[in-house]
Amino acid sequence: MIGRLLRGGFMTAIYAYLYIPIIILIVNSFNSSRFGINWQGFTTKWYELLVNNDSLLQAAQHSLAMAIFSA
């Protein structure tokens, strides 16, 4: 019983170690501040810049085409 609880606690700690930074990154991606040190408000500005970046979209299209043709 103790081994089972210990294993469950260990796995919870591992998953927390892996997923908490990802959650923090997602939350901070909506921060209007350029740096994630302090929260300055909610915005989707960074995603708008991402979608409007033509060279980045072209690179993504080329990568997708290469993935499809190589499969």
UniProtKB/TrEMBL annotation:
Q: How does it sit in the membrane?
A: Multi-pass membrane protein
What are the UniProt keywords, alphabetically? Cell inner membrane, Cell membrane, Membrane, Transmembrane, Transmembrane helix, Transport
Q: Where in the cell is it found?
A: Cell inner membrane
Q: Name one GO cellular component term.
A: plasma membrane
Mark the transmembrane ranges.
12-30
Family membership: Belongs to the binding-protein-dependent transport system permease family. CysTW subfamily.
Protein name stated in the entry = Spermidine/putrescine ABC transporter permease PotC
List the source organism: Salmonella enterica subsp. enterica serovar Poona
